[in-house]
Specification:
This protein is of the alpha+beta class. 30% of the residues lie in helices and 27% in strands. Strands 1, 2, 3, 4, 5 and 6 form a six-stranded mixed β-sheet that branches. The protein has a four-stranded antiparallel β-sheet with strand order 8-9-7-10, with helices on one face. The radius of gyration is 18 Å and the shape is globular.
Length: 279
């Protein structure tokens, strides 16, 4: 069978204090994209080992770790071959690896207890992707409050080649002294819950959409600023960095407007897709 692992977009990302475990408190609004990795799952002969294949990704990937974690939890499904077709740019702030891992975990839904705990052990973005939906995300990614689906809208993504490590960006944010206190994060969460919970397009509360990691990411990749400028010049109603970058994105009212902007940009790396609901 084939399953899909949709990318996620950080409509905003507010950075809070660093915790004792080395992670940061966050307040973010995640939404799924139509952009997704197709994953082909088939059974292997009894007695053989699970096999996870992902062309272009070297070393063990997060999906392989997810399948191993299911086995360690006692999941007795026959051996599987999992083949991932990477359409989500790697290390681009779009949660592609987390999406793949979450899709693998969904194979055991209803059969393995505490999938959320297993997901959290794999990575901060994995729990939210177990059920791809608009969500207010707190903590380091483990506190998830799913919200009503937003009104239709579209995005243009400029991945910029990917390859910007999350840990590297957070370390740069610490070096720059970025971040907010816990009280401010709580206030922002309340405002986001009210605004996004109304079911409108994110463009209706664009004043709440910001990414505190942008200065750190731009410090490491100055060309991110050029991508944001280009998106705005092409007609984006709001331009932002997603996650830890380097992907810049522009918000548009609909797919037609996003496609028109992509034509104006005339960039090989531009990706146009619908946003707000999983494919």
């Amino acid at each position: 069978m084939q399953i899909l692992a949709p990318a996620k977009l950080n409509l905003c990302l507010y950075l809070g204090p660093r915790r004792d475990d080395g992670l940061h408190e966050l307040c973010s609004l995640f939404e799924p994209l139509a952009l997704a990795d197709p994953i082909e799952v088939s059974e292997r002969p009894s007695g053989e080992a699970d096999e996870v294949l992902c062309a272009g990704v070297t070393g063990e990937n997060l999906a392989a770790r997810a399948l191993a974690a299911l086995r360690a939890s006692g999941w007795r499904h026959p051996p599987l071959r999992v083949e991932i077709e990477k359409r989500i740019p790697v290390a681009a702030g779009l949660g592609g690896g987390s999406a793949d891992a979450a899709a693998v975990l969904r194979l055991a839904a209803g059969e393995v207890e505490e999938l959320e705990r297993i997901a959290a052990a794999l990575g901060a973005d994995v729990p939210s992707q177990l059920v791809p939906a608009l969500a207010l995300v707190r903590g380091a990614g483990e506190r998830i409050e799913r919200l009503p689906r937003s009104a239709p809208h579209a995005v243009v993504l400029l991945p910029g080649g990917g390859g910007l490590g999350t840990a590297e960006v957070f370390a740069e944010a610490d070096r720059l002294g970025l971040g907010r206190d816990a009280t401010e994060l709580d206030e922002l969460a309340d405002r986001l819950r009210a605004a996004a919970g109304a079911g409108g397009s994110p463009l209706s509360f664009a004043e709440l959409l910001a990414n505190d990691l942008e200065p750190a990411a731009r410090s490491l990749r100055p060309e991110i600023g050029d991508a944001l400028d280009a998106l705005r010049a092409a007609g984006a109603q709001h331009g932002l960095l997603t996650g830890s970058g380097p992907t810049a994105f522009g918000l548009f009212e609909d797919l037609a407007a996003a496609r028109t902007a992509a034509e104006r940009l005339d960039r090989d790396d531009a990706i146009v897709c619908e946003a707000g609901s999983a494919p």
